[in-house]
Specification:
The protein has 127 residues and is an alpha/beta fold. The chain has one domain: 3-Layer(aba) Sandwich (Rossmann fold), CATH 3.40.50. It is built from five helices and five strands, in the order E-H-E-H-E-H-E-H-E-H. It has a five-stranded parallel β-sheet, sandwiched between helices. Helix 3 links the parallel strand 3 and strand 4. Helix 1 packs across helix 5 and helix 2 runs parallel beside helix 3. The longest helix has 14 residues. The termini are close together.
Length: 127
């Protein structure tokens, strides 16, 4: 059985590379893209086991991408997790209303992020 595949959408290159590296070190496969628009295209193509979205991105933000993913039959069952510096209660509520499984705040430690995503993958029977 192949390790779970995670799709990461993060516009900041350094953060995207850090997330990709840490998830790969945790034994997961990762495809990383710089915006929500590319996340939609890749999600339909690769059907990941989990999608990690930054909330604030160019072209299409994470909330818009999540809503679109949850409306499309091929991707609606894929768990979506937000990663954001926007930690106000209203921001978090918007994330869950868009269809997110979880909402994690920046800054984060790579190990904590990996462990939390692995927990969600296990919950969904992907590990």
């Amino acid at each position: 059985m192949n390790p779970p595949l995670i799709l990461v959408a993060e516009d900041e290159r350094e953060i995207r590379e850090l997330i990709k590296f840490s998830l790969e070190m945790a034994g997961l496969r990762v495809v990383a893209v710089p915006n929500g628009q590319e996340a939609l295209l890749q999600a339909a193509k690769i059907r990941p086991d989990l999608i990690l979205l930054d909330v604030r991105m160019p072209k299409m933000n994470g909330l818009e991408a999540c809503r679109a993913l949850k409306q499309a039959a091929p991707t609606q069952a894929i768990p979506v997790v937000f990663l954001s510096a926007k930690g106000q209660e209203a921001d978090i509520k918007l994330g869950y209303e868009a269809g997110a499984e979880a909402y994690f705040l920046k800054p984060f430690t790579p190990e904590e992020l990996s462990l939390r995503l692995i927990r969600i993958l296990r919950k969904h029977g992907k590990l």
